[in-house]
Design brief:
Strand order of the largest sheet: 1-2-3
Order of helices and strands: EHEHHE
Radius of gyration: 14 Å
Distance between the termini: 31 Å
Largest sheet: 3 strands, parallel
Oligomer: single chain
Number of strands: 3
Strand content: 15-25%
Amino acid sequence: MGANVTRAQSYPLGMTYSMDTATMLLNKKLGDIKLSSANVSPADKWTKQILALLAWDSQAADTIQQAWMGLSADVKADTIVVVTATDGDDTFIYTNM
């Protein structure tokens, strides 16, 4: 298994997370995952990857889910996506503070 982690939030924190932003993030991260899968050494080859998304709140998590449903199967490839809504309880994850 390969793993990739990212955050789903808008700035300023707490603003509505848009479908365009969610789709852009998923396309970028899933593209990176396909690239890493294609370039991994044969000795370390994996068959699936996990994309872990930390969402600022349930609205962002729901928007990520809707964006995921709209993606084509070839973009999703062999990736498992796990979305965790943190409800803003751990701001340090989303900032450099």
